[in-house]
User: What shape does this take?
Amino acid sequence: MTEFASVALPAFVAAGPQRVWDALTATGIPLPYFHGMTVTSDWQPGSTITMRLEGELAQGDRELSEVTICGEVLAVDPPRRLSYTLGECKSDPTVYVTWELHPQEGRTLVRLYIDEPHTSTGSDDDLHIIWLPVLSALAEDLERERVGMVRDLEHEGLTLPQGESPRSPGDRDRAGRRWTRRLPSEDGLPRLPSSGARGSGHEGGTDVGPLMNRAAPWAEHTGDMTVRLPIGDFSRMTYLSVKSLRRYHDMGLLEPADIDRGTGHRYYDASQVPLGQAIRRFRDLEMPLEQLKGVLHAPDTRNKLIIAHLEHMESALQQTQQTVASLRALLEQPHAPIAVEYRSVGAATAIAISEPVHMGDIGAWWSEAFDELHQVLAASSAVRAGPDGALYPNDFFEEELGEVVAFVPVAGMPVPSGRARLIEVPGAELAVTVHHGAISELDQTYGALGTFVAEREIGVQGPIREYYVVTNLAGPGAGPVQNTEVCWPIFRTKGATP
Assistant: This one.
């Protein structure tokens, strides 16, 4: 199980939360605080992020110019919280980044949370070295109005002069302000401003050091909690990966009891272990995360949601068992010959419902259509003139979508209302066999009858027809049984027999 190194890097910025948010979500322009890389994203949950050096900056830094960083936006709550992943393209994310913005009397307290997998050489100190310059550069760029410069010009309907680019060190905008790129140190990271420069050239310098170095006592912000579980221990106790716990935190599904303000480490209360174990079991039952969130946060409807999901799972299990049994029978049992009869049926008047139906929706549509037809018949003075039936066009099988006709033959039927209408079911010559078994195995009967017709070369174009014949069985506890007659359109000469 992967262990994560985590840090929290706070800083006060002399700008409002919206200005900070605009800087964090700037797209299509080079961002000095991210090594001058151009970030592209629409900043919607689930959207992709790409970061790369472009233009003259790429020409000046050949090594970085060949690097493209990709990620995914996880959570967006403007202008308060932004969470995303970063890593190599087409690979699993290697860092989870969360920015939290808190207004503080005209300034913004920015908290940057970083989680990275432990490597053989990595440590929390490495995260400070890599990400502290990013936060420091963001704060300084905001206070000198660098990041917002391009947006301001666009709002004013202005553009930079031809040949000038904010991507090039030393370029100036129309207001005469100079664009600068932070020069990398020998290890390729932006240099930290000296302690003398930080805050000395303007009012309201960025306070980074004191807040980062302060390690608050655990009791100060945990109240009565007595058992403090690091995320790794909590992961082992619940069988939830650190990656999953991170995602659940972003969604508000399972939040840590505390995040240490000095190190950024996430800690859980021992009382949260049963909740984590319950979440894992619901996920094992394939409960969607949004539905699971409703279960955990809506106690009034919790039991109803759980029962509904369990019923769905039971139904899916039953369907799976039927499919397995059908497949086993298909593989192990030889195909028995089917009984086929030739039948001539004449045209018949019927009440019918005819609609385009997807093959995957046929079960529900079939039940609703015949329920409605039976109600129409019961409310009229007409009498039934034959068993229920349905017509299935070739498109229904070939394209999984076709105009299906459900009908009930009637006599003396006035014009109905609603979806039902009076039609004439055309007469036909048919090869007929009776399907025995579950409806999920109906395709086997179709296959056997179709083979029978093809071998004799008597098939013709036309819809497959089904009749649903109800037989009343005799004996104790016996009731009506419905059999499905499958009818294939054929051409036959007078007197021909199967």
User: Anything to note?
Assistant: Residues 302-332 form the longest helix (31 residues). The chain has 15 helices and 20 strands. Residues 57-61, 146-225 have pLDDT under 50 and may be disordered.
